[in-house]
Write a structure and sequence with these properties.
Length: 461
């Protein structure tokens, strides 16, 4: 392994890409620790420590897993990359129902650049809206409505008296800072895509997950006793560690198996004679990935399911309505059967939706026909297209089932064992799935550079 790592840094182009990617990720982590001005970070930490995984604190911690954000610290990168992900979801969905966007998608590279431009504009608009509501929520969660605001805003010794003009001036600046922070992260991801190695947005999300893993592990170890669990004290026992360890190994094994899993379609090229030589006639395989959509369905599904809970919690705070509180509890993570059912349904929907975007059976069929290849037993053209679509529907069902299983089991485990959702997600669920999948994709991209230069890949013996 050390020899393979040495080889990575002996190739100038690959070394530059890796160092640039590491440097940009370091910039992201440094910026995630820079707080917004005029926020008392000590009070913020005290509030989240007292709340644990309930209410606003629990909701923000769930969002942070999927958005590469630090919502619990109110920093300049507090929103993370979530507005960009939300804008991408919006335009992907609009592209299937709105004719102008659908036509842009068919224009190739020029259309893709235009859609990316619209996505950036939508990201800025979402940043402004989300940062305003986020700051309004975070500065109003305390008993006095200003628990996180620095004393410079107070007009007297009473914490409840705030200089409104100063406060609104700060709010405008804070919204602008958080918007610029998200736009900067979007730019970082694009720079990694173009000049670094790997998918920039996915690497930012993975970096946020890995950065939070040590604290989650420390929290688990601090509350663990070398005995069976004592339910009266709410401590974790040996069986909790065993379950999480099994989940850890099972998820990593399952992710690698599904990511590597392929349905190989037998394919044969037609024979043709040139002079005295016969070309073609060879048998090959067309590999179709079982999980064509990757981890995007889980990210999309989790993002959409966070929105109802956030809205109902905000309405409950403004209207003091018990009905809104009940609806917020229904959409709380892992707290109801309806949430789990919606989660699974959205994962399946986005699996098929993303697969339909990334894999076009008609284009594959036409390419096979143009290159003189065919699938034995199926005529080139429409019959081949229908066969490929039928196979992809079946294998996508299996891939979506695996994603749903990985996404739901940690929720059930955290509910039954009393483990915080963050610990269960990081060490046996969605967070681990995202981290492993992104790391696996990164290794494959590095291997492609090594193979081009006649080196062995990282995962080869």
């Amino acid at each position: 392994m050390l020899e393979k790592v040495r080889v990575l840094f002996t190739i100038p182009e690959l070394r530059t890409k890796i160092l640039l990617t590491i440097g940009l990720l370091a910039v992201f982590r440094v910026g995630s620790q820079i707080p917004l001005p005029m926020i008392d970070q000590v009070k913020v930490q005290e509030f989240f420590a007292s709340q644990g995984n309930e209410g606003v604190a629990g909701l923000l911690q769930q969002v942070s897993v999927f958005s590469a954000s630090t919502l619990s610290q109110i920093t300049i990168f507090g929103l993370g990359i979530m507005p960009y992900i939300s804008a991408s979801i919006i335009f992907q969905l609009l592209g299937t129902v709105w004719k102008p966007l659908e036509e842009l998608q068919k224009e190739g590279e020029a259309g893709r650049k235009k859609i990316n431009e619209y996505t950036r504009y939508a990201t800025v608009a979402l940043c402004i809206v989300q940062s305003y509501f986020y700051l309004a929520t975070m500065t109003g969660v305390g008993e006095n409505g200003d628990s996180f605001v620095n004393q410079a805003f107070w007009t007297s010794a009473e914490p409840g008296n705030i200089d409104k003009s100063l406060y609104w001036g700060w709010a405008v600046v804070a919204v602008a800072i958080m918007t610029c922070g998200t736009v900067f992260l979007m730019w970082l991801g694009e720079q990694i895509d173009e000049f670094g190695i790997g998918n920039g947005i996915s690497l930012l999300i993975m970096a946020g997950i890995l950065a939070a893993m040590p604290s989650a592990l420390l929290e688990l170890l601090q509350n663990t006793k070398p005995e069976l669990r004592n339910f009266t004290r709410g401590e974790f026992g040996i069986e909790t560690i065993v379950v999480l360890a099994i989940l850890f190994v099972a998820v990593i094994t399952g992710v690698v198996f599904i990511m590597q899993g392929q349905r190989k379609i037998p394919m044969q090229s037609a024979k043709h004679v040139r002079g005295r030589r016969v070309y073609g006639g060879t048998r090959q395989f067309l590999p179709l990935r079982i999980n064509q959509a990757g981890v995007m369905p889980i990210i999309f599904a989790s993002s959409l399911l966070l929105f109802p809970q956030f809205v109902f919690q905000a309405l409950a705070g403004w209207t003091k309505s018990e009905t809104m509180n009940s609806l917020a509890d229904v959409f709380a993570r892992g707290q109801s059967f309806l949430y789990i059912a919606c989660y699974i349904a959205l994962i399946y929907f986005f699996c098929y939706f993303w697969t339909a975007i990334t894999f076009n059976p008609k284009d594959v069929s036409e390419n096979l026909k143009n290159f003189g290849s065919f699938i034995p037993g199926y005529r080139p053209g429409r019959r081949t297209e229908e066969y490929l679509e039928k196979v992809m529907v079946r294998i996508t069902y299996v891939g979506a089932g695996f994603l749903a299983l990985v996404a739901v089991i940690p929720t059930l485990v955290s509910t039954e064992l009393g483990v915080s959702p963050q610990v269960a997600s990081f060490y046996g669920g969605t967070g681990l799935l995202i981290a492993v999948s992104v790391a696996f994709d990164l290794v494959q991209k590095i291997d492609s550079h090594l193979v081009m230069r006649n080196y062995k890949g990282l995962i080869e013996g």
